[in-house]
Amino acid sequence: MSVLERMGEPTPKFFRVLRTIGLSLVAAGGAVVAAPVVVPAVVLTIAGYLTVAGTVMTAVSQAAVEKLEE
User: Fold this and answer.
1) Does residue 66 surpass a pLDDT of 90?
2) Which residues contact 66 (CB under 8 A, 6 or more apart)?
3) pLDDT tens, position by position, 3-50
4) Helix (H, G, I), strand (E, B), or coil: what is residue 32?
5) Distance of CA 54 to the CA centre of its chain
6) Range of 32's domain?
7) Which of 57, 55, 65 lies closest to 5, judged by CA?
8) What are the transmembrane regions (predicted)?
9) How many domains does the chain have?
């Protein structure tokens, strides 16, 4: 199964929920990083980690597929 075929297959419910959580983390982290106010460095660091974790969670969750009978 190629990557393109894998991305086109249905995603199980558990991984759809994880994908949504990952997208939320990316949005929250991105909002903090792009905030026009002065934010302490530790908060920016945590926001960066949230963005990376959310991106990875979303990508991995999207690649999960239900096992199909062949």
Assistant:
1) no
2) 9, 10, 11, 12
3) 777 777 888 889 989 999 999 999 999 999 888 888 888 999 999 999
4) helix
5) 4
6) 3-63
7) 65
8) 21-50
9) 1
